[in-house]
Design goal:
Largest sheet: 5 strands, mixed
Number of helices: 11
CATH class of the largest domain: Alpha Beta
Shape: globular
Number of strands: 14
CATH topology of the largest domain: Udp-n-acetylmuramoylalanyl-d-glutamate--2,6- Diaminopimelate Ligase, Chain: A, domain 1
Structural class: alpha/beta
Radius of gyration: 27 Å
Strand order of the largest sheet: 1-4-3-2-14
Helix content: 25-40%
Order of helices and strands: HEEHEHEHHEHEEHEEHEEEHEHHE
């Protein structure tokens, strides 16, 4: 009789691995703070709570629900933290409270904005843009770097063998790959030096070989240690060059694409506001204007639509975003484009439900909830009768 094996209880590391599949952290903007921000990968992850903001109300909800992991779209820790005191009235204090309660906190922010099934794709679909592409495609960072070092001719083979043994020089099924070039190096050793070649206190010229090779980032520390040990010089010179991969057409910030059919700006704004639950949407442009292409950027688009590789927005286009600064609104007007502001977090909130569904595919044994206390801090007021 066969028995069905129960899935192992999920750990925080499993949540991190799932999020890395859904929204790889390398997609995040350089200025952002994404990934596991609070807690240990070894902690359990039976209950997961999804939210846009980790507010005091959401933190209290997480505690009451005995949550193990909070996935907060906006990172609750963004700038340098000088104190960590549990205090729900302070942003840093909320993170400290979560740590004290052994509740892990993960933030995907701009990583999920750029993801294939992320915030911008979700909003684009709700707007009626079936086939959208990023403003600018993301470039996958290479897992390798190039190492260049300079070695006396009689030590070149010894140094090469050492760095190859440590993990350098592999390209596909080929090993010990390198390029060597003859040249000359100069140095002037101070009185405190003990040069392996020549003498201190005078300018020396040495016949050297430039060695170039590939190093996996994960083996970089081992390779540089091996290089220093095998190199005859007291202070071996070497350079490291980061390598980049190919642009990935489906990944990147923002989304742009044609609507399923042309639509009037005002009607699009009303339909979209209803679909996302926007209480006080605003538009730039005439409601009767016909739009055929949309530039979608959750949160705040700023100048990104003008920097898109697909061509800047103009007549017949609409920028769909959360909030618009005054001077950006004027710029949209001057370009002839329309714009729709749905509210910053309102434009981002539609991702929570599909994110929960994606996580359930990766974490079979976990319970995943969407916060009931998470809300837009800006509330619309009813007009007076």
């Amino acid at each position: 009789m066969s028995r069905t094996r129960k899935p192992k209880p999920a750990r925080v590391r499993d949540v991190c691995a799932a999020m890395e599949c859904i929204a790889p952290t390398w997609l995040a903007a350089d200025w952002d703070n994404v990934g596991l921000l609070v807690g240990s990968e070894d902690w359990p992850a039976k209950r997961i709570l999804l939210t846009i903001d980790l507010t005091p109300e959401v933190a209290t909800e997480a505690i009451e629900k005995k949550t193990d992991v909070v996935i907060a779209y906006h990172p609750p820790i963004f700038r340098a933290v000088k104190q960590m005191r549990p205090d729900l009235s302070q942003q840093d204090g909320i993170a400290a409270e979560m740590l004290a309660r052994r509740i892990a906190v993960y933030s995907p922010h701009t990583a999920i904005d750029a993801a294939e099934e992320g915030t911008n794709v979700t909003l684009a679909r709700l707007a009626g843009i079936a086939s959208a592409r990023p403003f600018n495609s993301a470039v996958n960072p290479s897992r390798n770097c190039k190492l260049v070092t300079f070695v006396p001719a009689d030590a070149a083979e010894r140094v090469s063998d050492a760095i190859f043994a440590a993990g350098a020089g592999r390209i596909g099924d080929y090993s010990k790959c390198s390029f060597c070039l003859d040249g000359s190096g100069t140095f002037f050793g101070a009185d405190s030096t003990n040069p392996a070649v020549g003498e201190k206190g005078r300018l020396e010229r040495v016949a050297e070989i430039r060695i170039e090779t590939i190093v996996p980032m994960r083996r970089l520390s081992d390779v540089t240690v091996a290089l220093r040990r095998a190199h005859p010089y007291e202070e071996p010179a070497f350079d490291l060059y980061p390598l980049t991969g190919e642009p990935l057409a489906s990944l990147g910030q923002g989304r742009v694409g044609a609507f399923d059919k042309p639509v009037r700006l005002g009607e699009l704004a009303r339909q979209l506001a209803k679909r996302v639950g926007a209480k006080a949407p605003a538009i730039v442009g005439k409601p009767s204007a016909i739009v055929r292409r949309g530039f979608v950027c959750v949160g705040a688009a700023g100048s990104l639509p003008f920097e898109a590789s697909t061509g800047p927005c103009g007549p017949g286009d609409v920028v769909i975003t959360g909030e618009i600064r005054h001077h950006d609104a004027l710029r949209y007007e001057r370009s002839g484009a329309g714009a729709i502001a749905l509210g910053h977090s309102t434009s981002e909130r539609p991702i929570l439900k599909p994110l929960g569904m994606l996580l359930k595919k990766h974490l079979a044994g976990a319970t995943i909830d969407i916060s009931r206390k998470d809300r837009d801090p800006l509330q619309a007021i009813e007009s007076a009768p």
